[in-house]
Specification:
Blueprint (H helix, E strand, L loop, with lengths): L11 E9 L5 E13 L12 E5 L28 E5 L10 H4 L10 H16 L4 E7 L1 H12 L4 E7 L7 H15 L11 H15 L5 H6 L2 H15 L4 H12 L13 E7 L7 H5 L2 H4 L3 E6 L15 H12 L2
Parallel strand pairs: 3-4, 3-5, 5-6, 6-7, 7-8
Antiparallel strand pairs: 1-2, 2-4
Amino acid sequence: MVNRNDAFRGYEKYTMNQFEFESGRILENVVVEFSAKGTPKYDDEGNINNAIIYCHPFTGNYTSLGDIYKLTAEGKPFDFNEYYFIAITKLGFPDSCSPSTTNLKHHFPKYNIRDRVNFIRQFLKERFDLDRVHGIMGKGLGGYEVYTWACEYPDEMDFIMAIGTCFKTNGYRYVISKCMESIIESSDDFYSEVYTDSLSRMMVSVNRLLYSNHFSKKLFQNMTNDEIDVLMDDFVDEGLFIDIYDFKLNNDAILDYNIENKLGDIKAETLVVSSDADMYYTPEFDVLPLDDLIENSTVIMFNANDEEIDYNDCSIIEDDIENFLNKIKNK
């Protein structure tokens, strides 16, 4: 039986000679942190044909593969005996190429979601000689990469699975991201060469904004203000480990994200998973319209519990996922 901690153990670092951003900026000696779990299988030409790429959310890295551990045990839909998972710490996040780990800080090249996708694609080609994968799945921010990859390179995967995510930054999400941008840009210290205490304090304000998206609608209505304060303080404390330069460049990429007009280009079988209580990625605006926008799409909506929207526990829709994967196998 695979447990969640198994997915945390073992990672590698790979260095690409260089990576060119869409802006034209080039960085050399680009580090990629990754982990590969499962059993690779090969076609007649020696190419891995069962690779699934896992794209992690905002508060994650390659270890986020552990979020689906209940689905990777023997006999489960994503049985590690049947599939080969590759989880990459994304461009802009610590321990892969990022503002903090390169020490470039605010001088780090501005990037977008396509840059993140191309970062993964280049790595897969160099490290695994992969031009095509079996599937791509991602949660939250990782879902932005899933949709973008499937739109921009529709022939490079058999299926995609997007969990608790969206296809554009608009409305409430845009307001939140603009507020966070304003908070950060209000400080002259952001452009200094020293990471000051004021920047750390600024992350407290930013994390209070982020906190509002963490729980279900029902929980917020049932909690007292004192209870909210306690949980918010815990959330803010955890967020203090986020580097403000990593955060700022990531927020810039989110602000520019909109692939709504390209969703019709997706050819892959698509599974969309969402919660009926999600306040940030709403069913009515971000999920249900996908039935019409993506040709081969299946939408699954599950009921949230009273505490948080637990997208980590996709085992509650295990049968739906099994049916989806069987549909792909039988094509």
